[in-house]
Backbone:
């Protein structure tokens, strides 16, 4: 496979004209997976971060365990842009399989650190080359060949530290964080980094890229979205977790299990949670629904194929009105698709998941912080609304490391929704499960086990009346379905409101969601700076849409709906939701190639449209 | 059931409840359907064991059998879930509230056809549940197609013959690790009642495969799940006696002819052997005897396998004693310091 | 439960003013299911049909085997309207459980034949009553109580025959057809009908309803849509059928099995087909897809819950481009819903069935004849397009008996699509499975077993290039997805075109599909006659939509989209497909109560909208 | 395979094909993965048996194991289907074209976890297929979680211990009616090769459970699916010899110590007993012996059960000899008269 962007016509890179390019470049490291490069790249990322420079890292890895090409891109941006950047300023070419294509795909003037035996310098005259004999560098450190392979990768971090003028102390500090409690691994890696650092002193610096200390990361954290969502679930007080492994969602649950074991087991060894690795996704969601029915805060996490398998159960939970939280860490479909690439491709099918007039609540976290906050809110919303809530995150958010403000401790107490206990029943003398007593379409429920002779009701996916009794009566059926519609409609006001940016005066509206956010912000800046196009930006955070979404469209002549799928799925939901007269204002900008969205793709598309 | 109540007055159980408190809605199943008889037996067993109806969660899939929980114990919560997916829903419910007494009711189509995957995995996990399969060898609710428990050579009314081997749910359950496996017949009031009561005292998965004729679609000649067939081929392995803990009767028994199993709650299951050499504590032997019987067209009934000591899923997960569902916020949301520590680690 | 329509304010029934009401009325028979009334009602329907009078029958039955209330409605219409009619002119009240509500729900002046012990005449003074002591009537015929219960029901057919002036010979003829090869059953039933007929001579006719011979049914057939679809599959040359029973689709496959056994087993006993009752719907569709991949004409049939379960496989078949035909006989959702009631509720979720930018081809038969023709065409289309084709029929079409012209023998030969054989490969020297060689987005395939060393390719649900090799390359992925989009877009021209009615001059457009057709035609007539509203009508027959759909919307100021679901699902697909400027013209008229659509509901809704 | 070819020249098989014609793409699995060894054995067996690659359909689910069909026999069609759903796809393919030699390749997660339902029903149907489970006790592709064949007490690298009983796919398959059930080890070249060749001669479901260590996630101490564990606990029941029909060598054997099974195509499977008393033709006994071995931590290998006579699904359906897929239109679309008759009956 070629370098991921090789077939995109490269944009002319900003040429260094003698001066340094400080804190504004991107590095791509090309290795093979399973070779330990993930640690090295994290160390590099973290070292830059520790120097106070905004960074982001994108891992482009194959659906495979070991030996296939992997690329990791680190962007340092003094302006704080953290979207993927297509142009590579510095390539670290460690993988013989892809090195040729990787080099040929660069823009003129880019720098290349490479494993000397690859002899890449012959390929093009217009690059800056730094050959390094990595094997020789790590040879003195260990005799184990396997370990050597790993250390080679830490050595390039040292080389880059010297070339970029990174503080070696920060590198060492980052290595320490990377291998906590493993002094031998730490020491060896520090030695490897130092070897690289020392060796690089012999290289003549001929590129302009440098890192200088800033103060833009103080207090911030580095974390991936899956870890953030796991913490969300932890602080939501999740009690039942049923799951089935699938990329890219597995690490969400695996991290959560770690936290639960650490923070939710009492001194007596007893757990306030149950985790079950189910036999498949049907069972996983079935368990979550059974648990939600019985009153637990229950969840599962999966990706597209799992969501498809959950379809029948999703309809049951919608219709029988049972809370459950489902994290969908989206990857590229259709079908098994590209399991290790990112997309926002499950939006439309999940909104209508299951046959027969089913509708669902979706949340769209747009940052790791929102993976956390929505990870908390989803449980409140599911119990409040008595319906499944899907948290639509994606591989880019979930598996890449992001810079973030630390997460806020939840401000509100748990909202356990409308539940009647024994005392309530004593007072009321009974209840009707599906009666709309509060005018919001949400009935009151009881939990199994409630010690009251009037507590029980019969839950079913078949037609039922207000008392939850079986019914085929046409009018009863209609009423019930209308109530469900009302309930979901009312959800608009409970869900996270969209986030607005801009003066509100622009004619041009940009609308996006989820992990597209950084690219959208940067694209907005590009549009203004490069094309004089002023725009407002609305980031949608939930479906059914808040009323503000409509207001935004009303207030703009043209609204570009940018998303990471082929079919313009959120745009489709908007078309169905907005008054028909507003629909012509929507300009879908769907894009899907499995790579995290970059600003240039967005601004180019919009400029082209605007120029028409 | 924490504290055994004082011996009950004649018409009430030890909780002081009359049998009426265990009734359900009027059955809409066909008159004569085996499932109706099983509902009766379940209701009686619950009454006799003095199970508080509010503690029971009735769980089922889809089918005539799966509808039947509506026809007993209206005072218990119930969840009539999806076709073949009751096991997962039950698993979630039990984990959410370990105090629930989960009663799963399913059919042979619901369990052995579409639901076999969830069945297999529930058995492995030894979830505390009383799982009753009302086995008529056909899909009743969709009007009489063969299910996967239909016996080789069985005939539908239309003359169509089943040419695939039957899945024997008991053999399967024993193999997979279920800890209480029994087979009975909806028409055998005594055996089924004793078995249900013993199963209610079991902690872990109690799987009962109860032959339950479908009078509308599978009670004809040529059927192997008919009343007539069962009358001829039912081979009880033993006579069952169940002595609940709260009755503590010290009945004499002969260890040579009777197997006595002490259940988790101190009650006793006594099996007076009718077949020499069958030991319901030997997994491998039980399986080979069942395979042999199946090949010969015999329907072995009784408690086929029991292991009253194996840890249940709730034990394995080492859950706190209180139901997870209703733990207070303090117990489930870690304090601010934990978040601070987590954030620090990420800096 | 109340009579199905009891809570609808009854419309004033046309009062008889002395004169007879000939061939224009509806009969409702209220019984319990499992009581043999289905045979009696079919006989009654057929007898009227044999008199040359257009009829339709609607069975309203519970999700239950025996003992619960069932209603059967027969409409006779000299004008040929065959939609359900809400008003009941003649009630046959046999079921003690519902008799009271059934009678109270009638319009003044209606007639009631009832089982004498029910003593219904006291309920209301404004009806015409015919009490009949049915037990006494059938008592002499047999001693078996079970049989008596059945014969009571044939006796009311005799009573009605006399009251409506039906030819008893036609009744007897119909009984003969009902019990072919069962002389004893036939004789007993004839006797029961005669007993009723004879007894009714003692009743004084006081209602105006009569049947008179006409010639509007000559040459026509009576058949249900499932039987029609089964014949379609038979004449499509289906070879592999995998299914799992579910109401209301089971009878489709069961009828098909009957035909296959009869017509597709050779004198040597060998079958040219394989039918497998799968363990569930995932397996059923998996088998169909495996068979389609290997070159068979393969199908399954199911209803909403099954379609939900097929979701993951549907995405695989779309993406790996495998033909399969899936009949979805729709019933009321969400979830298990009302399994014995009708709806068009799976349209939207099926169009987008599966995660990640999946799209499907849907056919919408609007009559039993189209259940047949589309049952044939679906196989051609699936193989031509190399994709799953969903035939979206419903319970009303599928399980009710409809009058129809006889079905035409397929005019075209089987279209097996683009398949390369050994000789082609010899000539070509190889092929690329997913290359768009013909510019229609459809590649050529080979079948497993083709004896040529270059025949093989690797089928997968993961990313692949033109040679079907595994690929994660972003550009390759994009190209492939764009080709799939093009393929489905091109399908518009291959799919059955919509059917247009009206002058094309009206401002008002009506748009509908499937089993709504009779109600739409009648509603159009009502709108014209009763409100002077002229309209054109377009019946959509497939998705992706034909270009004529757009033209129709362009040509009309307002287009009412009538359908049998809550959410306006086809209207949603239209909104997503039409140019945005046309969207404001759409007026969704969704309706869902589980009962077959009637004209009055449609015309009332449209009149109300038009009056705004 | 209709006519046995003349004995092949040294470097080609009886079809005149060299082993290169049976190769696939370069493996992307980890070096040392058991699955790679199994791919080699399959390829060799196909070559040695002279199976035309074009006749083979390779079917798989999702997982490292399920990817492996890409790495052998590129000249065969392949379908890498959905996770756990290979059996249904295979069933459809075989029914569409009975001449195909179906090779199903699956993993323990693919088969025993998500796929157990389809596995159970495929076994019941006795579909003609060679079904190979590459069993490593973990989910390789998703990075090392336990699967349902992980043994009780097995430990992950992280120290997490499996506390659920393993599903023994062989015992299960035998119980469910599979007609050729074997277990082997990816590291036992001789045994696995002979077993594969015999399985290729079987008409019906041949299910082979092949322990296949995952060097990346499950080859450490504490694993029961490691190379080291297998070296200690592998208990071969017999020595396998397979004599293909086309070789017709009349080898002497002693009926007292050797079981000779005549396969459907006339070839011979000869099992020279290492364990006294094990008879691979006795379902019940085989099962109880397997249960016992499992409890003791032994891994019995060999042909555990065989019934070379049972009718396969293709037999039961009585399909025409030609593949359904390519029957001419005349054979599948009834003539106009049939439609006329059907219409008449509806008038
Ligand atoms: C997903 C799904 N598929 C099919 C059905 C239709 N269906 C309802 S009940 C049933 C079979 C029930 O058989 P069994 O479990 O044996 O119950 P019985 O009626 O015989 O008691 C089927 C196939 C359904 N409800 N859901
Ligand atoms: C529906 C679905 N769920 C989950 C996954 C993720 N997944 C891919 S492979 C795999 C497990 C494979 O394990 P196994 O079959 O044992 O194969 P191995 O990799 O160990 O050879 C899982 C869970 C998937 N692809 N599809
Ligand atoms: S159809 Fe059969 S299973 Fe269903 S209620 Fe009637 S007798 Fe029972
Ligand atoms: S992860 Fe394990 S199963 Fe997968 S290829 Fe590597 S060694 Fe094999
Ligand atoms: Mg049944
Ligand atoms: Mg595995």
Residues:
């Amino acid at each position: 496979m070629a370098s991921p962007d090789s077939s995109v016509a490269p944009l002319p890179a900003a040429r260094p004209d003698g001066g340094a390019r400080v804190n504004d470049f991107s590095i791509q490291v090309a290795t093979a997976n399973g070779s330990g490069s993930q640690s090295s790249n994290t160390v590099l990322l973290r070292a830059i971060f520790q120097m106070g420079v905004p960074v982001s890292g994108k891992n482009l890895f194959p659906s495979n365990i070991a030996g296939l090409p992997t690329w990791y891109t680190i962007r340092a941006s003094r302006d704080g842009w953290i979207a993927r950047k297509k142009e590579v300023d510095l390539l670290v070419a460690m993988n013989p399989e892809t090195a040729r294509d990787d080099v040929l795909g660069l823009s003129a003037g880019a720098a290349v650190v490479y494993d000397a035996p690859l002899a890449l310098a012959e390929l093009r005259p217009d690059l800056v080359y730094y050959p390094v004999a990595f094997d020789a560098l790590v040879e003195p450190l260990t005799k184990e060949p396997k370990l050597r392979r790993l250390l080679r990768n830490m050595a390039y971090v040292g080389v880059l530290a010297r070339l970029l003028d990174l503080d070696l102390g920060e590198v060492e500090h980052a290595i320490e964080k990377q291998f906590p409690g493993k002094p031998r691994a730490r020491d060896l890696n520090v030695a490897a980094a130092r070897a690289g650092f020392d060796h690089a002193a012999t290289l003549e610096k001929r590129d302009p890229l440098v890192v200088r200390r800033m103060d833009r990361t103080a207090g911030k954290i580095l974390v991936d979205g899956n870890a953030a969502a796991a913490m969300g679930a932890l602080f939501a007080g999740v009690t039942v977790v049923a799951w089935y492994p699938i990329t890219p969602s597995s690490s969400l649950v695996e991290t959560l299990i770690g936290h639960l074991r650490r923070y939710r087991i009492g001194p007596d060894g007893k757990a306030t949670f149950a985790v079950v690795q189910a036999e498949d996704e049907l069972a996983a969601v079935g368990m979550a629904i059974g648990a939600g029915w019985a009153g637990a805060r229950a969840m599962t996490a999966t990706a597209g194929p799992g969501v498809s398998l959950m379809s029948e159960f999703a309809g049951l939970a919608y219709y029988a009105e049972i809370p459950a939280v489902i994290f969908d860490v989206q990857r590229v479909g259709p079908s098994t698709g590209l399991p290790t690439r990112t997309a926002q491709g499950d939006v439309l099918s999940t909104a209508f998941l299951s046959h027969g007039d089913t509708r669902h609540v979706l949340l769209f976290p747009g940052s790791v912080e929102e993976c956390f906050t929505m990870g908390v809110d989803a449980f409140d919303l599911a119990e409040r609304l008595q319906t499944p809530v899907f948290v639509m995150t994606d591989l880019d958010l979930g598996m890449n490391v992001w810079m973030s403000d630390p997460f806020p401790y939840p401000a509100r107490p748990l909202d356990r929704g409308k539940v009647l206990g024994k005392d309530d029943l004593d007072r009321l003398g009974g209840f009707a499960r599906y009666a709309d007593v509060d005018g919001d379409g949400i009935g009151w429920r009881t939990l199994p086990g409630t010690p009251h002779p009037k507590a029980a009701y019969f839950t079913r996916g078949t037609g039922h009346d207000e008392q939850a009794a079986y019914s085929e009566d046409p009018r009863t059926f209609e009423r019930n379905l209308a109530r469900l519609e009302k309930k979901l409609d009312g959800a608009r006001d409970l869900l996270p409101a969209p986030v607005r940016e801009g003066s509100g005066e622009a004619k041009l509206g940009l609308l996006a969601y989820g992990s597209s956010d950084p690219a959208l912000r940067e694209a907005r800046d590009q549009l203004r700076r490069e094309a004089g196009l002023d725009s407002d930006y609305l980031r949608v955070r939930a479906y059914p849409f808040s009323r503000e979404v409509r207001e935004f469209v009303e207030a703009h002549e043209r609204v570009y709906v940018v998303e990471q799928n082929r079919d313009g799925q959120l745009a489709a939901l908007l078309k169905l939701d907005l008054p028909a007269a507003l629909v012509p204002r929507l300009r879908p900008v769907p894009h899907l190639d499995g790579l995290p969205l970059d600003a240039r793709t967005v601004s180019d598309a919009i400029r082209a449209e605007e120029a028409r | 059931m924490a504290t055994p109540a004082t011996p009950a007055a004649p018409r009430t159980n030890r909780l002081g409840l009359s049998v009426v408190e265990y009734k359900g809605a009027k059955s809409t199943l066909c008159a004569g359907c085996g499932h109706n008889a099983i509902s009766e037996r379940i209701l009686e067993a619950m009454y006799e064991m003095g199970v508080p109806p509010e503690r029971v969660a009735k769980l089922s899939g889809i089918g005539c059998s799966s509808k039947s929980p509506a026809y007993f114990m209206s005072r218990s919560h119930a969840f009539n879930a999806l076709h073949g997916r009751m096991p997962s829903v039950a698993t979630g419910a039990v984990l959410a509230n370990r105090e629930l007494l989960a009663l799963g009711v399913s059919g042979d189509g619901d369990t052995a056809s579409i639901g076999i995957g969830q069945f297999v995995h529930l058995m492995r996990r030894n979830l505390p549940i009383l799982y009753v399969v009302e086995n008529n060898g056909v899909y009743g609710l969709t009007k009489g197609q063969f299910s996967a428990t239909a016996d080789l050579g069985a005939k539908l009314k239309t003359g169509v013959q089943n040419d695939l081997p039957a899945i024997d749910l008991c053999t399967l359950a024993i193999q997979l690790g279920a800890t209480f496996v029994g087979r009975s017949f909806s028409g055998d009031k005594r055996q089924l009642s004793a078995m249900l009561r013993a199963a209610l005292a079991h902690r872990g998965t109690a799987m009962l495969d109860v032959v339950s004729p479908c009078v509308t679609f599978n009670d004809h000649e040529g059927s192997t799940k008919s009343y007539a067939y069962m009358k001829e081929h039912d081979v009880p392995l033993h006579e069952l006696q169940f002595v609940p803990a709260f009755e503590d009767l010290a009945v004499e028994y002969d260890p040579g002819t009777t197997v006595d199993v002490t259940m988790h709650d101190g009650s006793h299951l006594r099996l007076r052997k009718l077949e020499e050499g069958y030991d319901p504590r030997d997994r491998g032997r039980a399986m080979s005897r069942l395979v042999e019987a199946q090949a010969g067209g015999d329907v072995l009934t009784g408690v086929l396998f029991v292991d009253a000591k194996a840890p249940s899923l709730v034990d394995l997960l080492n859950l706190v004693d209180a139901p997870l569902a209703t733990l207070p916020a303090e117990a489930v949301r870690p304090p601010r310091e934990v978040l601070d520590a987590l954030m620090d680690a990420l800096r």
Remarks:
- Residues 23-330 of chain B form a domain with the Rossmann fold fold (CATH 3.40.50.970).
